[in-house]
Amino acid sequence: MDTYSYVGNGDVNAIEDLYQKYLKDPESVDYGWKKFFEGFDFSRTNFEDGGEIPENFQKEFKVINLINDYRSRGHLFTKTNPVRTRRQYSPTLDIEHYGLTEADLDFEFAAGAEIGIGQAKLRDIIDHLQETYCHSIGVEYMYIRKPEQVKWLQDKMETRRNRPNFDSEEKKEVFRKLKEAVLFEQFLHKKFVGQKRFSLEGGEALIPSLNYILEKGANLGIQEFVFGMAHRGRLNVLANIFKKPFDQIFAEFEGVEYQDMMFDGDVKYHLGHSRSRKTDRGVDVHLTLSPNPSHLEAVDPVVEGITRAKLDKYLNDDSKICPVLIHGDASISGQGVVYEVVQMAGLKGYGVGGTIHIVVNNQIGFTTNYIDGRTSTYCTDVGKVTLSPVFHVNGDDAEAVVHAILLAMEYRQTFKQDVFIDLLCYRKYGHNEGDEPRFTQPLLYNAIAKHANPKDIYLKQLLDEGVLSEKDAKAAEDRYIGILEENFDSSKKKKTTDIEHFLQNTWKDVPGEKEGDFDASPKTAITKKAVLDLAKSITTLPEDKKFFRKIIKLNDDRKKMIEEDRYDWAMGELLAYASLLKEGHNVRISGQDVERGTFSHRHATLTLEESEEKYVPLRHVSKKQGDFWIYNSFLSEYAVLGFEYGYAMTSPNELVIWEAQFGDFNNGAQIILDQFLSAAEDKWHIQNGLVMLLPHGYEGQGAEHSSARLERFLQLCAENNMQIVNSSTPANFFHALRRQLKRGFRKPLIVFTPKSLLRYNKCVSSVDDFSKGGFQEVIDDIGVDKSKVKRVLFCSGKVYYDLLNRREENKRNDVAIVRLEQMYPLPVKQLEKVISSFKNCEDWVWVQEEPGNMGALSFMMRNFDLVPLRFIARPDSASPATGSSKRHIQRHNELLDKAFN
Fold this sequence. Notes:
Blueprint: H1 11-24, H2 31-48, H3 55-73, E1 108-109, E2 120-121, H4 122-133, E3 137-140, H5 147-158, H6 168-191, H7 206-219, E4 224-229, H8 234-240, H9 246-254, E5 257-258, E6 273-278, E7 284-289, H10 299-315, E8 321-328, H11 329-334, H12 336-344, E9 356-361, E10 364-365, E11 368-369, H13 370-373, E12 390-394, H14 398-415, E13 419-424, H15 442-449, H16 454-465, H17 470-491, E14 496-497, H18 528-538, H19 549-564, H20 569-582, E15 587-591, E16 606-607, E17 614-615, E18 628-632, H21 638-649, E19 655-659, H22 670-677, H23 680-684, E20 691-695, H24 710-716, E21 723-725, H25 730-739, E22 749-753, H26 767-771, E23 778-779, E24 791-795, H27 799-810, E25 815-820, E26 822-824, H28 828-836, E27 843-851, H29 857-863, E28 870-874, H30 885-900
Parallel strand pairs: 4-7, 4-8, 5-14, 8-9, 9-13, 12-13, 15-18, 15-19, 19-20, 20-22, 21-22, 24-25, 24-27, 27-28
Antiparallel strand pairs: 1-2, 3-12, 6-7, 10-11, 16-17, 21-26, 23-25
């Protein structure tokens, strides 16, 4: 081995610091290091005179290499797996690999001071390293690039051999939570035979670990925790950490009816919960568990968004709130959203001051062994992306688990970074309690069947130590089982159950939808003076800042719009934000390139020419305005949309927006759309006012950038679960955005926004359009003599202007064009009013620019029954649009010809 390879390790800086201290004052360093440096000086002088470095001095460096390899690779040789033999790695940490022999074991080395034990025999150094890095806890951290963080971890771990020093009361506390976890699962298994519950059995150490997250976190100043987890172990967490009433959980097993007969609900192991409680040491903390579907890691960005929203509004101190994500080993390594969420950790728009990641590593995904489930060594290797420390812990060693948790919490609070805990355990039953795991893993499950549960293992330890007696342990278990039995009996008396909004305090002032709320939009106009004042404020730039000349021209063009009373799409949008900000509402926008806009239309953030300093006009609307945040996101849809959904979930009185770079990019976030946005109210009784802006329209840009897949959203629509809008004027877009915060309920708003219309000279609005009325679900055609109209074309969005131009070219005054601005909920009353005004119409037509198997056509066929309706669209197609500009023009003209011929 290279004698001087230690120079490449981070510890050379620490050794250099010690050496400099020694040069100033030899007595200021440990005795062992003093002798080491004396030998170093002697050897260096000798070496410079042509002599050889003494063998004992060379061996000091070999021992340092050994120490650093334990720090870097010790995790590969741990005793962390409770039911399997670990894979073998080479080279090992045997001393022969370092040029040392058994004869050196009783020789004293000054290098022992590096691990805090002073000059020591090699065998004692190795024993210390073995217990620190190769016992029940394996640690990965040497890739961290900040020496102070590496040194912090080394000091915390090496000075106490990476083991806790719990007193008897603390041990009893660990046992109490482990006992509750084990007995709760056994009780459910006995009382609800064969029912799915996704048992925590084998991984019960999660419960004491979460309990100590609360205890340690609260002592370090954390006031609120936000949890996200998949279904495995959720019921145990709800019962023993969140203190959800046992009888309520048992009633959910019984499948009693919901109090609200119109509510479908969800399975018990997907539900969220929120509760304020005291820790065992009497500190108040608030706990939130987000509901989650069976897409195991989909909740991760939602939790981060919830946390950030709370941070922005209530706490403004990331040391007071902490997200905790509980993963499965197969899902954390297999689902890409985890990587996306990890990449959020240090970004200004998404950071939350560090997340505690706990992996319940039962070493199997459904029926797939870990060797088929990932290529990486560990399921937690994604944590290395952000240079996060990773603790691999044996789930059978309860004290080691708690020790790792305490260390992780302290690290998070100190450095505001993510930490990963890999809790190695097992799954006692199959994927659910009805599966037979021996079909696929007979050897593993033979070993598991003979394996004692973590409670019994720890109880034996405490009995041997004299911390507990068998009598006391039995009495404690009997008391807990008695409580479960009482609640089980009580649950039998429940006739109905209900699912409360897990953030009901946050939403207490937003009562929810009432019958008739969708019959008409509320008034969202602002006064003419307010429009002009706001327009002036967002087009006034500070004179002492030098802006790029094209920015100045853009701003001058906007001032000209005000003078000519012709406001384009961007001005309508910015006026909506400005008006809400002035009323005290916060506005948050994120997405790819949203600060200027993909099509360079928004320019909400202006960059100075020479310094790249940012100026945001919407932050200068008024002195007492709401906060305006706008963030260019990283290149993610799934995680960012999930984050903004979580943010909006905690922000009923804020306008929260995600914009896709192109509308079709929303398909990268389809799981969030399917499982949260469209279904959450029906499953979990929760409202959400998130706005999605999806650029949409056929302008010959090919298959990828024409359609935002309107048909998919309409297929997800039912029970007034969301709003689908395809506006055609800046003012109607203005009113749609304001409407989000002017109702007594919140629904997701999906806006199909234009591209070519952003600068189209006919797509403009006047001051009057902003200062009168509200959102128009249907825009009637007032430019024709209705008595002469024989054909009415219903359409939505950009195609209206194409139809309008063709009508003007052909001078067809017998054809009216009616705009359906809101697709869902279908505005039946407004449509009836418009239809009744065309007394002589003989032909009712739906015209769309999308292919016939896409767009709104199938939705209109199923839902529009007010008049007989025929349909005009592009031919059915496998892709949304052609890639040929010539063919695009040809099909576009054919569409318009059909509409008028």
